[in-house]
Design a protein that fits this description.
about 140 residues; alpha+beta; eight-stranded antiparallel beta sheet; Activator of Hsp90 ATPase-like protein
Length: about 140
């Protein structure tokens, strides 16, 4: 697994960027870059389970490892979901279970730097190198509107 990092500067306060990232409506807009109809189902509290789902209710389940409003949101990925049901770990899932995806927001002079650091298995590195910059540009567009 490789740790990858993506970053973007957004001309908006960190509170606006935070809302853009995690509000249901805008979350679905920027994550559609990865999968059309994507959504997250959670109470968004630290320690809680979160389901990252596509339009068919397939995806993965994770926990919210750390949450500091308007600054940090960290996920620890656990396993896959099929038809809305958490699947037990198998050999493939175990290869990435425990990987992290961390969002950090830092603001200076009205400009927020959003940094995403995540563990990626080799098979998906090219995919995320292509898609994540597009997704972050969508966050920027939504937050600056």
């Amino acid at each position: 697994m490789k740790k990858m990092q993506f970053s973007i500067s957004i001309n908006a306060p960190k509170e606006k960027v935070w809302q853009t990232l995690w509000n249901d409506d805008t979350y679905q807009k920027w994550t559609s870059v990865f999968s059309e109809g994507s959504k997250a189902v959670s109470d968004w509290k630290e320690g809680s389970r979160i389901h990252f789902l596509n339009e068919n209710n397939d995806g993965m389940y994770s926990t919210i490892d750390k949450r500091v409003d308007n600054e940090i949101m960290n996920f620890k990925h656990i396993g896959n979901i099929k038809n809305g049901v958490e699947l037990p770990l198998d050999a493939t899932t175990e290869s990435w279970s425990g990987s992290t995806e961390n969002y950090t927001l830092k603001e200076a002079n009205g400009v927020t730097t959003l940094t995403v650091e995540m563990d990626i298995v080799a098979d998906y590195q090219d995919y995320f190198n292509e898609k994540f910059p597009i997704a972050l540009n969508k966050v920027k567009e939504l937050a600056e509107a």
